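User: Let's play a game. I give you a shape written as tokens, and you guess the letters that built it. Ready? Here's round one.
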């Protein structure tokens, strides 16, 4: 969809046309601007900012204030892509009224055009209320990082027949509640493909195979900023972390050896008065 402002119904048009949807995370103005200029369809301000940008071990410590702050920064860089923002841990699973207030903050103060919520059948009533209030909702099924302790770690979901059926039921419940799309994370590719075919709304996969209607990756994983072991499904397209280390290392060496600043990078000489 080059050159055209992406909206929630644009993703449905992609699915109908058989066109793959591209989603990437961003956490600040530069990453929002660059991903948008690269032509992605959806920019997600993920609560993965806890791991990627804030140094936490998981997403659970991320607060609503932090999500609003980072979403507003990304908003200033994104012009064309649809901007979706994650609702952080326990900001939408209490009362429906609380969820409505918190989601409204991400839209009104952060500038999000849609919010993403983790969960299935149990949060369908909340999603229905949000969509009635005019807040578009993207769902998230499978490996849901906010429930990582309950799930027993970062493991593939839906491998057993009963677990697979729960995910099928969850996907239909989210669609009926009004989700315009949903993320399917870390589940068998056959199951993700089956769910994708069964739904009218598009699915966006991460670690769920190529049968989904689109794909999402964390920007730090994609460009080589993430440290430590990466999930098997991640493909790195650049090594920006190494580039940054080398550039800063060279700068440090040149300062210490008095190579920088030189005459080319100075405003004037010591005697010029400049």
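Assistant: Ready! My guess for every position:
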């Amino acid at each position: 969809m080059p050159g055209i402002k992406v909206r929630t119904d644009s993703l449905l048009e992609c699915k109908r046309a058989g066109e793959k949807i591209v989603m990437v995370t961003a956490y600040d103005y530069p990453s929002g601007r660059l991903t948008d200029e690269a032509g992605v369809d959806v920019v997600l301000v993920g609560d993965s900012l806890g791991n990627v940008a804030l140094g936490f071990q998981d997403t659970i410590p991320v607060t609503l204030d932090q999500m609003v702050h980072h979403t507003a920064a990304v908003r200033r860089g994104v012009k064309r892509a649809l901007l979706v923002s994650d609702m952080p841990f326990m900001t939408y699973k209490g009362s429906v009224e609380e969820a409505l207030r918190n989601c409204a903050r991400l839209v009104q103060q952060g500038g999000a055009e849609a919010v993403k919520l983790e969960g299935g059948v149990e949060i369908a009533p909340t999603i229905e209320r949000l969509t009635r209030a005019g807040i578009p909702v993207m769902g998230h099924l499978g490996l849901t990082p906010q429930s990582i302790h309950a799930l027993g770690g970062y493991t593939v979901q839906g491998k057993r027949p009963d677990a697979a059926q729960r995910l099928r039921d969850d996907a239909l419940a989210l669609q009926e509640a009004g989700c315009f799309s949903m993320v399917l994370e870390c589940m068998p590719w056959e199951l993700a493909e089956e769910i994708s075919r069964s739904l009218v709304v598009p699915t966006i996969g991460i670690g769920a195979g190529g049968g989904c209607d689109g794909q999402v990756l964390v920007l730090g994983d994609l460009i080589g900023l993430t440290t430590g072991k990466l999930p098997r499904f991640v493909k790195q397209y650049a090594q920006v972390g190494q580039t940054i280390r080398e550039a800063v290392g060279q700068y440090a060496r040149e300062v210490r050896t008095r190579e920088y600043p030189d005459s080319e990078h100075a405003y004037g000489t010591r005697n010029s008065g400049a």
